[in-house]
Structure formats: structure tokens, C-alpha cells
Amino acid sequence: MKTEVKEMMMEQCSVDYAFQRIGGKYKGRILWHLSQKTRRYGELRKGLIGITPKMLTQALRELEDDGLITRHEYIELPPRVEYTLTPDGRELVPFIALLSVWAKGQMRKRGVPILTKHSEDMDYCV
């Protein structure tokens, strides 16, 4: 007979917990791009300025491990992988948009140029 033992978890600050899951340089932008539609790896790589393939792969794995995105691998030639937001990931979209509004105001105050370049179907930044 197997006995289930509940692991003792320490209390955490909710803000720390949130930023552990979505913190980092690229995760917010990845989530934003996926909020627009399901995307292939190559689309994300092209749309995320300044990210290396290694960092993109790492961030995608972390977001998948945290249950914020799903990865669907198609068994075909050439191989195709698509990423989409989970319901938990979709819940974050309005908060990312609010952070963007706040950040743009801060950037204007400090004279920091705001990235406005867009492709046909992808905002490069929120």
C-alpha cells in the first residue's frame, strides 16, 4: 500500500512567486506574442529581438514547466512545433498590458526610446 506524504511548503510572498514564474528578460514578451495567436518556434525567434535560440528554448521550457504555455509537436517532415497559451497563461495577458502602459509612461519621463517596430502579424513589443 502506497502512503502519500504531503510535502511541507514554506509560505511565500505572492509577488515573489509571480515574478519567479514570469520574471526574466523574455518571458513577458513571449507570453504577449502567444496572446495574439499560436506560434511556431521560428515565428517567435524572428519576432523576439535580441534573444538567442538557446535563451528562447530555455524560456519556452520554463513557461511550459510552469503551466503557462503548451508545446505541440507534430510528427511530420519537416518537424513542426507550435506553442500556445494555457488558460493560466491567458490570465496574465491583461497584467502584461498594464505593465506595458506603466513602462511606456516611465520611458517617456526618462527619455528612453520606445520600440514601435511591427511586422505584419506580430507586435515586437507590447
Automatic annotation (TrEMBL):
Q: Which domain of life is it from?
A: Bacteria
Gene3D superfamilies to which the protein is assigned, alphabetical: Winged helix-like DNA-binding domain superfamily/Winged helix DNA-binding domain
User: Could you tell me one molecular function GO term of this UniProt entry?
Assistant: DNA binding
Establish whether keyword DNA-binding is in the entry.
Answer: yes
Please name one Pfam family that this protein belongs to: HxlR
| Keyword annotations from UniProtKB, A to Z | DNA-binding, Transcription, Transcription regulation
Q: Which residues form the HTH hxlR-type domain?
A: 13-111
Q: Which residues form the signal peptide?
A: none
Q: Which GO terms describe its biological process?
A: regulation of DNA-templated transcription
Q: What is this protein called?
A: Transcriptional regulator
